[in-house]
Design a protein that fits this description.
single chain, alpha+beta, three-stranded antiparallel sheet, 12 strands, signal
Length: about 270
Amino acid sequence: MKNTIAVLALSAFFTFTACKKSETTNITTNVETQADQFSVDSVKVNDSIKLNDSLSIKYSSKMLVFPSIKDKKLLDSIYFGDKNVQDFSKNGIRALLEKNKNEYFNGIKKDSKDWISDMKFAQEWYSDLGMDLKSNTNDYLHIQYGWGSYEGGAHDNYGYSERVFDLKNNKKVELKDITLIPKNKLEALLMKNVNKMNGGATDDKGEINNSDMLLVEVIPATENFYFDDKNLYFHYSPYEITAFAAGDITIPVSWQDLAGTLTPQFKERMKIK
């Protein structure tokens, strides 16, 4: 039931640039400088190996580096997905990505010894991990973490995690920092707004509403959120609240919906009237 739009979007997001050689590594870095001397660096590792005529494996990973952030607790929160990060420099992150890549390849090599000779057709497995800077507004840093993988089966899997960091107070932003709305009322708003940003799933009758593919009776208000000057957005990965065919779902909740519940500090900083 996986629709064409979702397939194309997933393919575009998780495109690998590694060459199809038995052992090839390409490491690139780039730097962007933002206002107020805030700098962002990045390290990316792409590699591929071919175990035999039936199985090729690709690995891609990208991590951001923040030379201007010195607070260790904040850095630990930013790199929450990998507890092995001890050196937050570009060289340290590069060494970590190389280590993770080698462990991934070696793990599949070891595990495949018992079954790889039984593979009946050629397959290309992959692992893709990424960090992307989405915005830095009013010292609120929004980072999107994405992952995708395929290791056999009917289809690949992918997901996202959204995190916003308060650079003024060196902390991850939590919902209570934004709104004091009761949980049940926020969940009611999420259900009300579930179809405002459909994922693009279609059938022979046309577009399918997100609500038609819900797997839950109550949409949870998770910590997987971000915001801009108009809305608070909750992002759900496939299978989290809907069938895989729906893709990943984003539900907006406007500041008007949250009127009277926003914290004074957040309203002032985001200039919400």
